[in-house]
C-alpha cells in the first residue's frame, strides 16, 4: 500500500461524513466500501499488518453496550491503520454518574478526536450525535435500528464466496423483531439486488415486515429452500419473558438450523451468524462448525471492512498519508 | 369601567348566535350583546374586519407542572401561555409532584392561579392516591376544594374494578372520570406507534390497540355504572370506532383529540431530523389512517373536544436518546393556528364547529362555566383573527418550555386578543 495506484477507483467517495446506517447509501457507495475492503484485507495477510494511513488521527470507541467482537474488530482495524485509538466502555464512563450522552460526547470532543465509533442501546443515538457534534460518527450498532458495518462485512463475505450479491436468495432466520443486523442487512441486500427471505416465529417478526421489501415466512424449510445464503440470528434467552417464545427447546425444534434442514439449501450454500452464537438454540453445532459455515470468516472480514470504512470517512484521498501533502 | 367590543362577528354556538354584534363589558361581566350599541362613555375596542368574537376558549387537558416540576412550567407561565393561545380557562392534570390527590394541593393550585391572574384554572384531581391505582383518593373532598373531574392521567386507571368504583362514585358527585386509556402490558416499554416507521427505525412500538382495548373497557364500565367517562387524547382509529358505538347505544362517553394527532403522523420520526424527541408523545403519533380518522371524527361530530395535552418539558430532558426522552409537547400557543389552518381553512369544519370544539363542548364535558356569551356572565372572550399569518417560533413561546414539533411552521390564523373577566390579558401585537 505505498502507491496511490492501488487505491480503488470504482466510485469516488462516500457522500456523508458519517456512517449512521446502510439506509442512505447507494449501490455505488456500498461497492466502493466492499472494493476498498478487499485492498484492506491484503494488509491483514502481511507479516507487518500496519499502514500509516490514519497516522495522527484519533479515534474514540465509545461503547455504551457490552460488545467484545465489534469493539475488538474496530480496535484492530484502527491500529492497522495507525490511528491513535482508545476505547471507553460504559462501566468506566461518567454515564454511571448521571451525565447525559451529549455531555459525555462533548467532553470527549473537547479533546479533539477525529472520529467516534459508537455502540448504544437506544435506536437513533448516533443520529443525535451526528446532529449536535463535530466529529465523524460511525454507528457500531444502535438499539434495534442498524449495525451497518455488520451488514457490510456480511456482504463482503457473501461476495467473496458468490462473486455477486444480485439475484442471490438470502434467508435470514431468528429474532428479527429486535435485530439491528436484520435491518441493516435488508437495506444493503435490497439495494444490491438480492432476494431476502425473512423467517421468524410470528411473535418475533417486525410489524409491517412486508413493507421492508422481503418475503416473510414462519417456515424455516421454506426460507432455506434453495437459499444461497442462510444467515442465523441470535435468540436471546430473555425473550421468553416477553412471551415471545415458550421455550428455547421448542424454538430449536421449530426454527433451529440443523444439518437436515440445511439440505434444502443450494448445494454451495454458506451459513452465516453475526454472533454471539447460541449453540443448540438457533443453530446446531454440526452446522456452525460444518463445511458450509463461514462464521469465522465473517469475523476476519470484519476488520478489513472496518478499515475500509475508517479510511473512506477519514477524508484521506489516498491510503498513503505521504501523498496528501 | 366599561369596554365596548365594536364591529366583530360574534360566533356563539351554544346560544345559536352568529352575526355582527357589539358587546358591552362592564365590571368584568357582559352587560349587553346587541347591534349598534351606544358608546356611552365606554372604552372602545375596535375590531378589525374579519375578526371573530368567541366565548373564551377552554383547554381541558393541560399540564401546568406546579407543584414540583417548576423547571418545566409554573402555574404563572402556563396560564400566560394559555391566554397567548386564546384560552381563557384550562383544566390542569394532577400528575404533579406531589400528585394532586388531596384538597390541600387543589387549594394550592387555585391560590397560585388567582395570584397569576391570567387564565382561569380548573384542577382535575387524581382518581387514586398518588395515582398509584390501589386506593381511591378522597374525591368528595377534592371536589369540594374545586376539582372538576378525576383522572390518573399519565397513567391509566389501573384496574377495571377501580375504574368501576371511580365511575360509580363520580356519578354521585356529578363529575366525569377522564381516562388516559392505555393497557400497560401492551404498551410495555414502547416509545412510538407500532407501525412500519417504528419497525424501520428500530423503535419499540405501542399499538393502537393498547389504547382501544381500554377505551372499550371504559365504555363498558361507564355503561355499567351509568356514569360519564371522558376519553383523553384519543389517537387510534379503533378507539374512535369504540366511542361511536358507545354513543350510539346511549353510553355517556365523550372524547378529545389533540392537534398533533389530527395533524402529524409517525412519518415525522423519519423526517429531515430523525429521532427528534419533539415528536415523542404519549399516545404516540400514529399512522395516516389514524390521523385521517381523527379528522373525520372531528368533522362528523364524533369527537367532542379539541384539547392540547400541553406537556412542557425542559430542553435538557428532551435532548437525549429517543428512548430516554419524556413523552409530551407544548400545545397551548399552537392550537388555534393549527385548527384554523388545518381544519377551518382546509374546509373540514366551520368556524361555528371550531368554537364548539374549543369552547362550548369543553365547557359542557367538564360542566365548566363559560363556553357561551351570556349577558350577566363573566366576560371571558377570545377574539380570533382567522387570516392572520402566524409562523410558529419555539424560541418565542410564552410557555417556559420549547418542546414543540411545529417550530417554523407557517400557518394561517391566530389570536387577536384574550379577555378574562373583562380584562384584556393578552393582545397580539402582530394582529393590529
Can you describe what's shown?
The complex is a heterodimer of chains A (325) and B (432). Chain A is of the alpha/beta class. In chain A, 35% of the residues lie in helices and 14% in strands. In chain A, α1 (27-44) crosses α11. The two termini of chain A are 17 Å apart. By secondary structure, chain B is of the alpha/beta class. Chain B folds into two domains: 2-52 and 378-427, Urease, subunit C, domain 1, CATH 2.30.40.10; 55-365, TIM Barrel. Chain B is built from 13 helices and 19 strands. Chain B has helices at 75-84, 103-116, 139-145, 160-173, 184-187, 196-201, 208-225, 237-248, 259-263, 288-300, 315-318, 335-344, 351-365, and strands at 2-12, 17-26, 29-34, 43-46, 52-55, 57-62, 87-92, 120-123, 125-126, 150-151, 177-179, 192-193, 205-206, 229-231, 253-257, 305-306, 381-391, 410-420, 423-427. In chain B, strands 1, 2, 3, 4, 5, 17, 18 and 19 form an eight-stranded mixed beta sheet that branches. In chain B, a hairpin with a 4-residue loop joins β1 (2-12) and β2 (17-26). The longest helix of chain B has 18 residues, at 208-225. The mean pLDDT of chain B is 97. The interface between A and B is medium-sized, with 27 and 23 residues.
Task: Give a summary of the structure in a few sentences.
The complex is a heterodimer of chains A (325) and B (432). With 325 residues, chain A is of the alpha/beta class.
